[in-house]
Please model this.
Amino acid sequence: KAGVTQTPRYLIKTRGQQVTLSCSPISGHRSVSWYQQTPGQGLQFLFEYFSETQRNKGNFPGRFSGRQFSNSRSEMNVSTLELGDSALYLCASRPGQGLTETQYFGPGTRLLVL
Amino acid sequence: AQSVTQPDIHITVSEGASLELRCNYSYGATPYLFWYVQSPGQGLQLLLKYFSGDTLVQGIKGFEAEFKRSQSSFNLRKPSVHWSDAAEYFCAVGLNYGGSQGNLIFGKGTKLSVKP
Model:
């Protein structure tokens, strides 16, 4: 099975712009989570989608949003970019929402905001 | 609040030496615990996980971890480190939202360097 794929892998934007990142989960996985990784804050949970519905959200401003499509692919959007949004954005997928299900991570999208 | 602490930011060991990476968690309910590894420029790869049962769990690449409820710890060990083990290691706890697994709370990570 192919793993979690994320596109693009690298992205450079300027302050004030918006950006959309894409994540394709492992085939058959219906749950997709997004995490932000920065040197200062580490890995922080953004949100989780299951069956096209947001199930859980982390403590991030409303500029961060996401959605999930019927094929389980997910996108996250960041509007009005700030310098502090520079980070590695990781997507993870798992089959459902069971307690013992493992999250499998993609390689990430590295976003640089200038 | 739930939290995960990895006290060691950076550890250097010699190739062939044993390794122990520390992880302490704070979580009121039964914890679901994970260790992930991240190589430079890569995503996270699962090394092992603990949900219940035997408190000593075996993972990939020769790693093992022991869950100690009394100490709220889940330390990662390897008897003999290889140069390819140089990476950053993250301990995480999975939250339980009424029977469904919620998000992962990660520690800040421990960077492992291996001396030849």
Observations:
- Chain B has a mean pLDDT of 91.
- Chain B is about 0% helix and 55% strand.
- The radius of gyration of chain B is 14 Å.
